[in-house]
Amino acid sequence: MALTGGLAILGGLFAAIVALDSLKNAVTGGTTHGFAVLILIAWTAAALRLYRMDLYVSKEGVRKRTFLRQRTWSWAAVQEFKIKPMAGLRVLGGYAIWIRLHDGSEIETTVHYAEALPAVRGMFMAEHEVVDIYDQLQAALVRSRNPAVQPR
């Protein structure tokens, strides 16, 4: 997360520098760098989207935010959470937390770990980190069903 946050900051900084240089050149009759500014703005936007990809929990439900979209499921729609193999990385031993809804559908979350790959926050986590997040999700689900249960 620090890497993508740093990339977003650098992209924004470079875009501002190039935009200021373009404005200076436009006033003096020189060439502008409009295309470079657009590329740097797109870079910054992509880095921000990557930075915000994650699984979010609130009193209302669970939100899965990916690069291009986000989706929220209310606690009433969530049946349970499971740790099971990822859809795309079974060969590498990749596992993810999945959301099972009351309608029977299952959604793979962005919380992953892989036995054959190093732990890298934002891509793959250590197994104990995923289990800790799983426990927190289960506790939030229990609290949503019984508001009298207080967080630990």
- Total of helices: 3
How many strands, what sense, and barrel or not for the largest sheet? 3 strands, antiparallel
Spatial ordering of strands, largest sheet: 1-2-3
Class from secondary-structure proportions: alpha+beta
Radius of gyration, in Å, reads 21 Å
Tally the beta strands.
6
Structure overview:
With 152 residues, the chain is α+β, with helices and mostly antiparallel strands. The protein has 3 helices and 6 strands; from the N terminus they run ααββββββα. The strands form 2 sheets. Strands 1-2-3 form a 3-stranded antiparallel beta sheet, with helices on one face. Strands 4-5-6 form a 3-stranded antiparallel beta sheet, with helices on one face. A hairpin with a 4-residue loop joins strand 5 and strand 6 (106-114).
SSE blueprint and pairings:
Layout: H1 2-28, H2 34-52, E1 54-57, E2 61-65, E3 70-74, E4 78-85, E5 94-101, E6 106-114, H3 127-145
Antiparallel strand pairs: 1-2, 2-3, 4-5, 5-6
Helix pairs in contact: 1-2
Please describe the structure with a list of short key phrases separated by commas or semicolons:
alpha+beta; 3-stranded antiparallel sheet; about 150 residues
Brief overview:
This protein has 152 residues and is of the alpha+beta class.
